């Protein structure tokens, strides 16, 4: 069965800082689709994050590039297999130079936390009770 993939593209100021941040979180880089202007970060088989230096990012749009430190351009939500894995990823992000952006949200059946990467892109990490999803 065909599995559609998603490739979020993010404008970054310092590619080396961004690459280190995401590898410190445990993700890998795909050198086949990386160069001095961009890095391909493998989040999962279906999610590949593309980090592009701002001049390279500008090659793909005629719009102004948002200042992600002051403007919300997108919220990237990543699910986790447990509440503990939510905490683990956010704690890794903070240790790697990210910033936790709000207090944990605990709704019983769903638990989430969020962090900003060094460029201010916001990642929401959440766990949802599988019994709730299954109905």
Give an overview in words:
With 135 residues, this protein is an alpha+beta fold. The mean pLDDT is 95.
Précis, in short:
This protein is an alpha+beta fold. The protein contains 4 helices and 9 strands; from the N terminus they run E-H-E-E-E-H-E-H-E-E-E-E-H.
Provide the structure class: alpha+beta
Report the portion of residues in β strands.
25-35%
Spans where pLDDT lies below 50 across 5 or more residues = none
**Average residue pLDDT:** 95
Largest sheet: 5 strands, mixed
Q: Count all strands and give the number.
A: 9
How many helices? The count is 4
User: What order do the SSEs take from the amino end to the carboxyl end, as H and E?
Assistant: EHEEEHEHEEEEH
Q: What's the gyration radius in Å? A: 15 Å
Alpha-carbon distance between the termini? 24 Å
Shape: globular
Helix content: 10-25%
């Amino acid at each position: 069965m065909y599995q559609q993939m998603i490739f979020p593209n993010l404008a970054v100021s310092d590619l080396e800082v961004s690459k280190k941040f995401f590898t410190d979180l445990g993700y890998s880089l795909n050198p086949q689709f990386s160069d001095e202007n961009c890095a391909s970060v493998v989040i999962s088989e279906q999610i590949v994050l593309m980090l592009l230096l701002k001049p390279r990012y500008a090659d793909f749009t005629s719009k102004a590039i948002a200042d992600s430190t002051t403007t919300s351009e997108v919220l990237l939500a990543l699910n986790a297999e447990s509440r503990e894995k939510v905490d683990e990823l956010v704690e890794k992000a903070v240790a790697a130079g990210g910033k936790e952006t709000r207090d944990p949200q605990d709704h019983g059946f769903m638990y989430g936390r969020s962090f900003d990467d060094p460029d201010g892109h916001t990642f929401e990490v959440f766990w949802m009770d599988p019994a709730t999803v299954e109905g």
